[in-house]
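Researcher: I'd like a candidate sequence for this fold, 280 residues long. If you have to choose between options at a position, lean toward the conservative one.
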């Protein structure tokens, strides 16, 4: 199929002193796509364009990402509040039906938490390699040096639309917070809770998951095997609790929204469009 770029409407949502650029384009059922942490809507452009062939796609930049403004606070609660503000604006603009919510990585966790809090405003969920109820924290004391180096030495994008204003320390803190939200285990406070699994139990909307087989890479050395085992164990835990969840595995790493955009779009398309409208 020939490459094609859709024309998108642009508008801005303002929430708690942050300006959030939102793009909307395509035709079909509404679908709101939330990027992950350190990702922007410009970076996932290929997936957005693929989906706009069959859906009315809305996407945006998280605070401190891309064309969004910087913020004085970065936390899961703050990002979730921004997402809720975007959804509220969409309701004011009017949608043809309750939207599909799709999110990658950190964005997947945001849509699951949102759907649990606002079930009537959600049609279905597409979880892409995130929102995983891992049975133990992903980042341990042993992992901290590796993750500090990873985020502190990351390259800074020259393109403003792809920039991330957060520091390496802020990104690490957000990932540590996410570990607790997913697993329910806080090693520092020695507390065990329900984690994100409890939110899945309370969501009565269809859920489709698209997961990577090698979330931490395909190396058989270092900490990657442990992280990949945890990733698989979290999904096994979830599907045991919710056998109704539709699950697709892609032979890919965590950047699957960049490396496997056509495949992801095809999975979503097949799950959410009538057979006579599905395209390749």
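Model: Candidate sequence:
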């Amino acid at each position: 199929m020939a490459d094609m770029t859709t024309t998108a409407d642009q508008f801005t949502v303002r929430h708690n002193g942050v300006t959030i650029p939102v793009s909307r384009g395509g035709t079909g059922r509404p679908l709101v796509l939330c990027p992950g942490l350190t990702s922007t809507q410009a970076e996932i452009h290929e997936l957005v364009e693929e989906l706009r062939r069959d859906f009315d796609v809305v996407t945006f930049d998280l605070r401190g990402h891309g064309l969004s403004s910087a913020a004085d606070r970065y936390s899961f609660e703050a990002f979730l509040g921004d997402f809720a503000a975007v959804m509220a604006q969409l309701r004011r603009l009017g949608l043809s039906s309750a939207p599909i919510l799709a999110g990658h990585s950190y964005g997947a966790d945001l849509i699951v938490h949102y759907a649990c809090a606002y079930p009537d405003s959600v049609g279905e969920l597409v979880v892409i390699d995130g929102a995983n109820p891992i049975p133990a924290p992903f980042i341990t004391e042993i992992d901290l040096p590796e993750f500090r180096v990873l985020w502190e030495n990351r390259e800074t994008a020259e393109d403003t639309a792809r920039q991330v204003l957060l520091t390496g320390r802020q990104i690490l803190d957000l990932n540590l917070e996410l570990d607790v939200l997913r697993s329910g285990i806080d090693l520092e406070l020695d507390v065990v809770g329900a984690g994100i699994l409890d939110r899945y139990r309370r969501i009565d909307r269809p859920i489709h998951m698209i997961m990577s087989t090698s979330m931490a890479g395909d190396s058989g050395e270092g900490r990657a095997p442990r992280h990949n085992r945890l990733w698989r164990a979290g999904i096994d835990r979830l599907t045991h609790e919710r056998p109704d969840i539709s699950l697709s595995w892609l032979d890919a790493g965590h950047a699957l929204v960049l490396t496997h955009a056509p495949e992801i779009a095809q999975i979503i398309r097949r799950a959410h469009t009538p057979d006579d409208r599905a395209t390749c």
